[in-house]
Amino acid sequence: MKKAYLYTLPLIIVMIIAFSSCEYVYIEPPEVPPVDTTIIISFDTIVVPIFSDQSCTNCHKSGGTSPNLTPDKAFASIVPGLVNLNDPESSIIYTKPDPDGSHYQKYTPVQAQNILVWIEQGAKNN
User: Between 20 and 30 A from 9 (CA), which of 19, 24, 37, 59?
Assistant: First the structure.
């Protein structure tokens, strides 16, 4: 019985030290400035560059994974299939690569916000 006590006490002490040293650090997500919704988000100059900036076109290209997000094919590949004008926040082009989404490559918070505003403005080919 005495031997078990000799091994148990150090184990309890180590566990107390280990658990008391753990600390949870909450990391605040970066503050995203609101997009001025009076500014028209252009598909050609704001949305399309997001796809190349985030390397989406490495996979989503002609002969690659659908949708084709290359500049000349992106709009036809996205609208209307991946855009929900009635509920923009549920649009696949917004939710799948969203910073909190499940897609391998993700938008930055500002990029995601620009895509959402573009959809809210009617997802126009401008």
Answer: 24
